[in-house]
Amino acid sequence: MKSYISIYEAIGEAAGVRRVVEAFYPKVQQDPLLSPLFPEDIRPVMEKQVLFLTQFFGGPQLYSDEYGHPMMRARHMPFPITVAHAGAWLGCMREALEEIGMQEELRDVVLERLSGPAHHFVNTTEQ
User: pTM here?
Assistant: First the structure.
């Protein structure tokens, strides 16, 4: 695999982040555990995710410029998130990365990077 400065660069910068997000959210909407946590009109969520992942993967600080510090755990506190939710979210992301044809080595790096936050958002043991 080629050497990159950031995950953002490795996945194809802005276009790559958008491809990931556009492959990911239809899977979230179809997931019986995750879909109830999201609004019917998913476009605003997708746009925020593009901004966040751009920044999170080492690209421009778009999310912070628009919304301030991400404070993602605090922003997710209103929603009951279990270990099962975190696993389902990561599963949908894995499927999305496979769907867009991301190389396995890079896919593993992306999923490892997202695994910490996904589990950090867990805020309840209740189903």
Answer: 0.91
